[in-house]
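Reminder to self: keep the SMILES exactly as supplied, no canonicalising. Ligand is nicotinamide-adenine-dinucleotide.
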Amino acid sequence: MSQPVKVGFVGTGGIANSHLRNLVEMEDVRIAALCDIDESRANAAVERYGGQAYTDYREMFDGADLDAVYFCLPPFAHSDAEIDAAERGLHLLVQKPVVLELETGIRIAEAVEKSGVISCVGYQGRYSNVATAARDFLKDKTIGMVACHRWGGIAGGPSHWWRVMDKSGGMLHEQATHQLDMIRYAAGEIVEVYKIDAMQINVDQENHTIPDAEVVTLQFESGAVGYISTSSALINGGGGSRTDFIVQGHYTVQLDRGDVRIVPEGAATVDVPDSRAQSIDEAFISAIQTSDQSVIRSSYADGLKSAAVSIAANQSSREGRPVRVPAIS
Ligand SMILES: NC(=O)c1ccc[n+]([C@@H]2O[C@H](COP(=O)([O-])OP(=O)(O)OC[C@H]3O[C@@H](n4cnc5c(N)ncnc54)[C@H](O)[C@@H]3O)[C@@H](O)[C@H]2O)c1
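Structure tokens returned for the bound complex:
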């Protein structure tokens, strides 16, 4: 067996716990250090998963022996920590959306590129067999239109960062980024967006400054067009998500989290592998062990491209005009 990969975390909230539960089951991983500005969260995570607790990432980088760091931070909290990690040669897994504003993301992407570390963004949907099948099926098809909705409720309670526009960037940027990323993965780059949004229903919710409805038009590099709608007004349930691709041959490929279907039935066949798919954590650890970035389906630079689309969409709704999505190299 190869040396265990020594992992640290910056941010030990909800999604960090989900990764940590997976990582402690992997025998080639050691949880070395866990950092959260909320000391009680850092300590609670150490009690559960082991390692050393920190409240300052710099102290963790200086004091702990690490190979890789998971950044499980809210969108507004991404900063120079990722740059610092990359400059120290630490491999990075960064949760989506990777930033709230593009400039920070571009600086982080440059540091990652320069250091040559393995980078991975938390778009775990890309690792499913359904995503693989949909992408493989669509890659040589002409796509006419992509139509997507992601509707749901509000994440967290009244003091949660998710419902605050300056902290989360809103539902498209924060949550429907999974759908947006999958659309990019399956249908290629989006070059222009135009978003309108509203706040009609969640006006009765405390401290809620994100739009409760967003509709975004998408212009693809390929010539295809599309749209995404989001809603956070369904706080009593009844939400859901689906993406439809209308393709050459005059039928629809319907994609949701667990399934890919052709409508009308029989117009084509999509083969979904039934083998066990590698999880994002397994892919990240294996990429580090083999120094092989190619097993990662969303690098930092690629994840930044998904964030750039929703950042441009938010700019578009503020300015009331279509906005070109900045090219990220
Ligand atoms: N891939 C997925 O399916 C998925 C699911 C849930 C959340 N997420 C993403 O993960 C990110 C975090 O979400 P969450 O639900 O875990 O949030 P959370 O609020 O539960 O946890 C975030 C933690 O980061 C800590 N933190 C903030 N600034 C810090 C800093 N500078 N240094 C150290 N710790 C700091 C907070 O104290 C908190 O404990 C979000 O961007 C979210 O979109 C992804």
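Points to follow up:
The pocket of nicotinamide-adenine-dinucleotide is lined by residues 10-16, 35-38, 41, 57, 72-75, 77, 95-96, 122, 124, 174 (CB under 6 Å).
The domain at 5-124+279-298 is CATH 3.40.50.720 (Rossmann fold).
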